[in-house]
Amino acid sequence: MLTSIVFLSLFPLTNSLQMVVVYGEPSDMSESQEYQGLSLDDCIATCYWDNNCFLAYYSSVCHLFEYGNMSVKSSKSVVAFKTRNYECPSANSSFPEFSTTDRWIENDVGYENEISPVGEISWKISFSIFQCSNNSKIFLRDTIFVCIGVRFFPNITCGNHNSAIEFCKTDGWSSITGPNNLEELAFLNGDIERENLVSKKYGNYLSLVWIDGNLGGFLDETHGDYTSTKCYDLPSNACLYIGHNQCTKVAYFSDCNTDKMSPYYCWRGVACRKEADRIN
């Protein structure tokens, strides 16, 4: 039985994608695309540069597989898996040690690649793609791909924190949210400006946006506690927001029932979250 693993890193990019080459062959060839005239190295490189390709199989002819689920069994042929930041085991490692789950984002598309052993002579592989819609942007929070975005209340109105919570349950959204890190904070602040252009401001008021955090409680379990994104300590007797021109991070206001900070600011909308759409 051939169980040795050969590691090959081709053309490293900023996302540290790699191709791990092993002896094996796919259990089902019906979903593959055949490429004539390619060498083994060219076959692997073609898969590497194709965002939708997760496995290359070579046995005199090159076969590439796009996202989906499949099994690979040990053989004298060669397959190459696409992985990220995987440290290859030694050549004499036992078969079951080859197992990995990779998640990354490239060009606003989320990728998840799971490889796990099945018995002693085969692997199960699942390669999935995630995307966002409705002007939202994809981010990876721990092991979950989420879509976040700023939504202004309809009809050029202002709203209090409770109305913001309810608004984030409409039109396919899941929950009110907040910035999990500085990258998300920068996106949400920029999204406020985008919404200002699309939905218009409320009179001469500057636009503030409610985020998750109501009297010390949180509804969205995926964003953390704003440790890296707050201007100052956040009390438990207030509601949280972003968008103030004197505090570009997370701030608070003691009256959760108000919709304006007179005479300059209006809570024009809310940061919302939903899970990313799985394409396959």
From TrEMBL:
Name of one Pfam family that matches: PAN_3
Domain PAN-3, residue spans: 1-132
Listed InterPro entries: PAN-3_domain
Entry keyword set: Signal
Position of the signal peptide: 1-16
Protein name (record): PAN-3 domain-containing protein
Species name: Caenorhabditis elegans
